[in-house]
Amino acid sequence: MGQSPGRMMTRKNSQFLLWSGASAQRIQIHVVVTSCLLLLSWVRTRWALLVVFWLGWLGMLVGAVLIILQAPRCRDLPPTNWWNEGPLYQIGNIQVFTDTHNLKGLEQKISSLSQLKVKGLVVGPIHVAPPDDSMNLRFEEISPEAGNLEQFKGFIQAAHKKGISVVLDLTPNYEGSSGPWFSNTSVTNVAERLKSALVFWLNEGVDGVQLAGVERVASIVPSLWSDIRAIVQNRTDQLPDRRVLIGVTERSSAEDVSFLLSSTGVDLLISRVLRAGDMDATERARAIQLLYSSHSQTNLAWSLGGRAEGHLASLVGPTMVKLHQLLLLTLPGTPVFNYGDEIGLMDEGTTFPKMLWDSDEELNGTLQEETAERLSCRRFFRGVSELRGKERSLLFGDFVLLSNSSSSLAYLRVWDQSERYLAAFNWADEAVVLRLNDAVLPQQAAVVLSTNSSALPADGGVDLTNMRLGPRQAALLRFPYTG
C-alpha cells in the first residue's frame, strides 16, 4: 500500500532536521577544534616571542658587558687638595685694598673675589711686628691699622661661606731689612714663638700659613722647622681638614727651587723661577719641564710678582698682562696672583698701589677707556679661571711640551678621555707661525679664547700645522678626545 503525500513530507522533514542537526554539530566541533588549534598556535607564538625577547635582551647585555670590558678604562682621579682647585689671590696690604682700609672692608669684597673663581686668599702679614725688633714681635696680635680679631673672624666666616679658604702670612720680620727671620741669633727664639702662634691661628679657622725665607729657618733650626710643619700639615680631631704650608723664596733657578721644595717639605713654594732676569721662552720651558718632571704638580706653584716684587702689569707691561694670566692659569700646578693682577693694576712707584674698584661715577673719555680695559682684563681672567676650575685637563692633566723657541711656547694639557687644551704664546714684537704636527694632535682645533679676539675669535677653527700668532699674543685652543 502506498504512503500518503503528507506522511512522505513529514518523513523528509525529519530526515532534513536530522541532517541539519548533525551538520550544526559538526560545525560546532569544527569551530571548537579550530579555536583550540588557534589558541595552541597563539600560545606557541607567545612563548616563541617571549624566548626571542629574552634572548635578545641577554644578547644586548652580553654585548654591553663586552663593550665595557674592551673599552679603555678611565684613569682614577688623582688625589688633590683645596689649593690645587683654583688660583690663590694675595692681599699683602689690607689698608690699600678697600676704602675702609681694614679687615671689615676685605669682608665686604668677598663676593667680588668669589666671581674670579679664586680658591684661596693669602692675607697679610697683619700681626704686630716692629721692623727688625724681634723682642716686640707679637704673632697673635693684629696690627691696629689692619683691624681686630672680631673683624678677622667675620672675614673668615664670609670667605668660607663662598667656598674660599684663607691663608695667613706669618712671616716674622715682614717690614724689616735684616731678613724675614731677623738675625741668625734670633731664629731659634722666633721659631719657637711661632709654634704657639700657629696653634692659635689654626684654631681661629685659618686654612693655612705662608712663610717667607723658609730655607733659612729649615737649615738653621731643622728640629723646630719639623715642629712647625707638623703643626700646620698634620690633621687632628679638632682640625680634620687639610691645611696648607706655603713657603716663599727669592731663589730663581729651577734646580734650587726643586731642591728647596724637597728639602723644606712645604706644600707649595712660591719662587722667582718664572721671573728670572732676561729669561726667554726656551729657558722658561726648561724650568717648567724640570719642575714638572721632578715633583707632583699638586706641589707646584707659579707666580709673577708679589709682595716684594710688585704687580704683574708693572713687571711685564700692560699689553702682556692677559698673556701671562693665561700662562699662570694653564700651567700644571697652582697659580698665585697679586691683588689687582686681574685688572692690570700698575705699581705707580709703590708695590702696594691702591686697589681700583668699579664706580658709578660718570667718567671722562680717558677714564672710560681705562675702565673698559680693566673690565676686559678682568673678564679674561675670570674666563680662564672658570675653565681651569671645571676642565679636568686643566685641573690636573698631564703637561706635554709641544714647541718652544726663544720667543714662543706651546704646550698641551691632557687628561684621560677629557677634552684636550692647547696653550700657545708669542712674546716677540713680530708675528710667529707655529707648525704643530705632533702625532697626538689633530690638524684642526677650536679657539676657546685669545688675547686678541679680532685675530683669533672664540669658536673659530685653527690649522695647527700653520697657526699664526700675532705680536705678544696668546691663545687657548681645544679639541676632543678621539681614542
UniProtKB/TrEMBL annotation:
Keywords (alphabetical) are: Membrane, Transmembrane, Transmembrane helix
Q: Could you name the domain of life of the organism this protein comes from?
A: Eukaryota
- One GO CC annotation, please? apical plasma membrane
Keyword Transmembrane helix among record annotations = yes
Residue stretches spanning the membrane: 47-69
Q: Report the residue ranges that make up the Glycosyl hydrolase family 13 catalytic domain in this protein.
A: 95-378
Query: Is the keyword Transmembrane helix in the record?
Result: yes
Q: Which GO terms describe its molecular function?
A: aromatic amino acid transmembrane transporter activity; L-alanine transmembrane transporter activity; L-leucine transmembrane transporter activity
**Biological process according to GO:** carbohydrate metabolic process; L-alanine import across plasma membrane; L-leucine import across plasma membrane; phenylalanine transport
> What is the protein name for this chain?
Solute carrier family 3 member 2b
Which organism does this record belong to?
Mastacembelus armatus
